[in-house]
Amino acid sequence: MKPTVHDIASHAGVSLATVDRVLNRRPGVSARTREKVDQAVQTLGFVRDVAAANLAKGRTYPLTFLIPSNDNSFMRGLRLALDEAKERAGVERIAIRLVDVPAFDAAALASALKKAAAEQPAGIAFVAVDAPDVAAAAAEIISAGIPLVTLVSDLSGSARDHYAGIDNAAAGRTAASLLGRFTGGRQGAVAVLAGSMLVRDHRERCEAFAFAVAQDFTGLGLLPVLEGRDDPVVVEKLVSALLSSRDDIVGLYSLGAGNRGLVKALERLPAERRPVVVAHELTETTRGALQSGLIDAVLNQDAGHEVRSAIRVLKAKADGLPVVAAQERIRIDIFLKDNLP
Amino acid sequence: MKPTVHDIASHAGVSLATVDRVLNRRPGVSARTREKVDQAVQTLGFVRDVAAANLAKGRTYPLTFLIPSNDNSFMRGLRLALDEAKERAGVERIAIRLVDVPAFDAAALASALKKAAAEQPAGIAFVAVDAPDVAAAAAEIISAGIPLVTLVSDLSGSARDHYAGIDNAAAGRTAASLLGRFTGGRQGAVAVLAGSMLVRDHRERCEAFAFAVAQDFTGLGLLPVLEGRDDPVVVEKLVSALLSSRDDIVGLYSLGAGNRGLVKALERLPAERRPVVVAHELTETTRGALQSGLIDAVLNQDAGHEVRSAIRVLKAKADGLPVVAAQERIRIDIFLKDNLP
DNA sequence: CTGTTAGCGCCTTCAA
DNA sequence: TTGAAGGCGCTAACAG
Predict the structure, then answer these.
(1) From residues 39-78 of A, which are strand D contacts by CB within 7 A?
(2) Going from the N-terminus, what domains does chain A have, and what CATH number goes with each?
(3) Pairing mode, strands B148-151 and B220-222
(4) B31 touches strand D (CB under 7 A)
């Protein structure tokens, strides 16, 4: 039978309350008593029952999520995932608070972080904008002992407990390999379509992609990056203009959002001129394009996984529990038309 | 505040014990009383606190896992995943019992299943051999009310609560697409290397692969399936023989295990004659081959995920709780050299 | 500094 | 068919 607080209390010759104080590192225990209790914990191999502890504390975990008020499919998916998490909130003893922050606005994010921290939640998750004032706010939160997790987009300098998102450099390399090999040795130009080079994930994907193409596929020439601001309308214009301005484009990597515009532009192209296309995020749009052959591969990060992972990590950190690293790694899903879920 | 049993007791004008009986569908409650309680549950929106319930019951979940005593990397990984799960057993209130069964032996598996069921565990997970007597044993377990999950390889006829494994037909199709597109329009022969056509996952992968190749890549001709029995030595011989018997092989799909033999055979081939190779399961061997360029893509199922998913589902079923389907879908991971974890 | 006592939300005897 | 009381493992006042 697993030892309980009673066992260690009697083993150490003290009362339950004292055991509890030691276990929770609360003050008011003499060094010797503490010693005895620790000893008993060791020898009996005691591990405290978190469920029971939470029950006793009546504890719930107020978690704050800061999400950019961006209206693309991915962010919508993220909100959906949060809604689903809220539904299970009761059972999991969490209370999720969703805070909207202006997209790509470091100052706003930093102050939102500070405000969130002031409420002393059990944990905070946020989509990072990689800027000094955000990092400063994050560092403050960490040193205040509030678990902090970055979501989707990470922060430089490790001023957080955990990053729940994909490895964007790996994503860029993977896109390069797929695109390069799918073109099957054809020579030509490759276009890169990003949201904005000011965002860290886009930058990382782009750089890794460019590097890998240059290294492994010398027959392919990279065109200057197009910045579509994750906006379908802008994207459509840019891609249309590009495709009509030259006819040697054999590949296109869309590493941001706004793929609705991309697909529209591609649809107008005669089939024989269609480039190999690799895009990010599985949405209604990209799924359809995958099935119709307009897009060849989609790299995806699962928003649901990211949210659940963030919650698990935040709870674990709040409880001072270890995290199963392997379980929390967010993978880069590769979807072809054949393995769509 | 979330309603508790007390709330619904007073609301229904009955005692806690009665509420409990109704909640757990135990006998000895008049229809009218039951009605009142159910009513109160509805109107108050009561959901029972599983953690507290388990605490009160002192409940742990004895789970039995039946794993084939096959010594390939994948099964070893599965055992490792189970060991890790055992370490978290205390916290998660589970007690995992691992039972070895002879590989590919339907009769042995069926009797092992019966024996496992006799011990009345909270749930059973097993790697299915797709045979009638196994299905019969499974059906018996299900009708005895013991949650049952197939792991890695499924059972026909849905005589189980859940399948924790990948969609093997999708895997076969995906392999075909990758291999076909990576060959870049070259004409030639494609070899398929399986473990045994008697195993369901291999059969499904193989059929789907063959179908997709025939449909989408008319330049590729499929050779008769080689059965390497998941044995590196056998595999090496078969592949070596094949590669020296003809020089028009542009692709190879290894859908089973024993890839150590495959890699050895490939290594001896001059670089310019190397086919495009797609294999299954990320192991030390396939990882190395991916990095060195001997293998082009690896389709993988994450044993850790499968085990954790099986545990979650088994616990949920045992508690009569719903499962988050999206969370339990086991994906087909696609690994290129670029996105290795 | 230490101990006693009363719960947290639920289940389970044991009586009525 | 129903209810009262005690306890699961832990925490949190409140006393000493």
Answers:
(1) 46, 48-49, 52-53, 55-57
(2) 5-48 (1.10.260.40), 55-164+303-329 (3.40.50.2300), 168-300 (3.40.50.2300)
(3) unpaired
(4) no
